[in-house]
Amino acid sequence: MDSKKLLDLTVEAIDERHGEDTEAYDMQGISILADYYVVTTAGSNRKLHAIVNSIIDKIHEQGKEDYRIEGTRDSNWLLVDMGDVVVNVFTADARDFYGLEKLWSNGKKLELNLD
Question: Quick check: is 113 in a domain?
Fold first, then answer.
């Protein structure tokens, strides 16, 4: 699966679980680690895990099995590393505290079509 298709599936999964303030950055040619970085906010820890589970379910439906999740059951931040696409799901306080978007300021912020 190409990185753009993986990004689209990821954003769709986030939107279905009502991720908030979702942003995606195109880092192709800038970062050697991933083509796209995505960040979203979950209203609670429970919703944070629901968003991550939705992403994993979507990519499994497409046959993608290689990914890694960083964080624990009690975390306020989970990272899903799917190779070409890296997703950070935060609670609001954790997202404000870490401010990861600054790391991707060299990338192109993508326009997302979300409900």
Answer: no
Residue-level pLDDT at 34: 95
64-77: average pLDDT:
92
Q: Is residue 85 domain-resident?
A: yes
Q: Quick check: 80 and 55 in contact, CB under 8 A?
A: yes
In which band, very low, low, confident or very high, does the pLDDT at 73 lie, cut at 50, 70 and 90? confident
CATH of the domain at 68: 3.30.460.10
